[in-house]
User: Which sequence fits this backbone?
């Protein structure tokens, strides 16, 4: 069974559209994350949720809105997509604690045309 | 502010060459350190981690890293690379942010290309 799964794997859409990416983890972890990886492979954290509560919200346009219906799911909704939103988006989860490593999903390659 | 620096963004080696990727962090508290690898087209996977104890840690696929507290460094090494080691390598530090929440702080990554 996949530990952290994201859907869809690829997403091509037009500017101005609204889209969502879903993430689910079956590891029983309390913390989930969304990361953005740009074309230069730079990895940047966007959001972190702990037990459905937002704990980290980096400088991200408010067109991006995470939603966590329960601690196993963290979805990312993006409004009014722009060309610059094209990237690979990774969901990750980790257990509690400073020693916790992050487990990553396979990524969603978003292309805005 | 906490940060993680990876000195080389691109490294090109021939097979059998030795590898050392630098990682320095700025954080005064207790740190937990990680190296992740991202093979082409794949997600990030943990290579190795350091929490405490022996500062030389061994990971998967023959990789190791040495924590030097006085230098705030956690360099990744492999004595003899293979073509299959071609990947992006990310160093990360688990530290507390201004809101007292723990989070992973990432370096910008090093792209390693190994020529056969």
Assistant:
């Amino acid at each position: 069974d996949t530990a952290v799964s994201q859907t869809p794997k690829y997403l091509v859409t037009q500017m101005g559209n609204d889209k969502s990416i879903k993430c689910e983890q079956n590891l029983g972890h309390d913390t989930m994350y969304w990361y953005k990886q740009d074309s230069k492979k730079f990895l940047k954290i966007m959001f972190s949720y702990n037990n459905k509560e937002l704990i980290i919200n980096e400088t991200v346009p408010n067109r991006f809105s995470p939603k966590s219906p329960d601690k196993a799911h963290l979805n990312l909704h993006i409004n009014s997509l722009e060309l610059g939103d094209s990237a690979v988006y990774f969901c990750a989860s980790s257990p509690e604690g400073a020693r916790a490593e992050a487990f990553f999903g396979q990524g969603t390659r978003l292309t805005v045309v | 502010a906490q940060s993680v620096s990876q000195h080389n963004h691109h490294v090109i080696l021939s097979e059998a060459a030795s590898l050392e990727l630098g990682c320095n962090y700025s954080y005064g508290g207790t740190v937990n350190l990680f190296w992740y690898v991202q093979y082409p087209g794949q997600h990030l996977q943990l290579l190795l981690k350091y929490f405490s104890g022996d500062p030389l840690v061994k990971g998967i696929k023959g990789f190791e890293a040495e924590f030097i507290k006085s230098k705030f460094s956690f360099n990744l090494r492999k004595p003899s690379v293979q073509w299959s080691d071609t990947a992006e390598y990310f160093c990360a530090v688990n530290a507390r942010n201004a809101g007292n929440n723990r989070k992973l702080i990432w370096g910008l990554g090093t792209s390693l290309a190994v020529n056969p």
User: Anything to note?
Assistant: The first strand of chain B starts at residue 3 and ends at 5. Residues 32 and 51 of chain B are 5 Å apart (CA to CA). Chain B touches chain A at residues 30, 32, 34, 38, 42-46, 49, 51, 88, 90, 92, 94, 97, 99, 101-104, 106, 108-109, 111 (CB under 8 Å).
